[in-house]
Amino acid sequence: MSNPHNILFLCNGNSARSILAEALATTLSHGRFIGYSAGAKPVGQIHPMALELIKTMGYPLQMLKSKSWDQFGREGAPRMDLIITLCDSATGEDCPYWPGHPSTAHWGFPDPTTVEGGDEAMMHAFKQVEMGLRNRIELLMDLPVTQLDRDELNERLQSIHHRIQFDQ
After folding, report:
1. pLDDT tens digit sequence for 115-154
2. Record's InterPro entries (predicted)?
3. Which of 30, 55, 86, 105 is found 20 to 30 A from 140 (Cα to Cα)?
4. Active-site annotation holder among 87, 115, 125, 133
């Protein structure tokens, strides 16, 4: 097997959507992709409902930490092949320099932590985000990533989001 592709999922708080994506990318791909997550303004803790869903995936919870995206722009950080923003506010932020000019896309999802109506409604929102991420990551795994140039890969990553968005 060739070297795994590193994917950084970005969201402002790095407590829910990006954390779910990190765990999904790593577990679903069986080593082909390694998911990472970070935020522009990390809240410093992972939402308990995200942890509950991730536990069912078998992803090691001790690997998860709410962290700043700055650490991935530093010398010695893992080199990212793909960067995917998951919240609309993260796409407008001034991102750090990413060594290697990774492919990028925006897969916007509403923040499940802001859903009102009690725990049941919030868990439903978390499950919707998890399913949306799962569907997109499964399509990503079908892409011939090493055979596409950066522009083609950017286009394909973005088309995955739009295709699923309109199919739902």
Report:
1. 999 999 999 999 999 999 999 999 999 999 989 999 999 9
2. Ptyr_pPase, Ptyr_pPase_sf
3. 55
4. 87
- Given 28, 43, 57, 95, the catalytic residue: 95
Q: What is the pLDDT of residue 92?
A: 53
pLDDT confidence of residue 100:
77
Residues of the chain below pLDDT 70: 1, 89-97, 165-168
Question: What per-residue confidence (pLDDT) applies to 73?
Answer: 83
**Is the dihedral angle over the CA atoms 36, 42, 43, 49 positive or is it negative?**
negative
Contact in structure between 16 and 126 (CB atoms under 8 Å): yes
Q: What is the pLDDT of residue 89?
A: 61
Mark whether 95 is an active-site residue: yes
The residue annotated as part of the active site, out of 11, 34, 90, 145, is: 11
The domain segmentation of the chain, as residue ranges, is 5-167
11 is catalytic: yes
Distance separating alpha carbons of residues 134 and 147, to the nearest angstrom:
23
Q: Which amino acid is at 26?
A: T
CA distance 41 to 139: 29
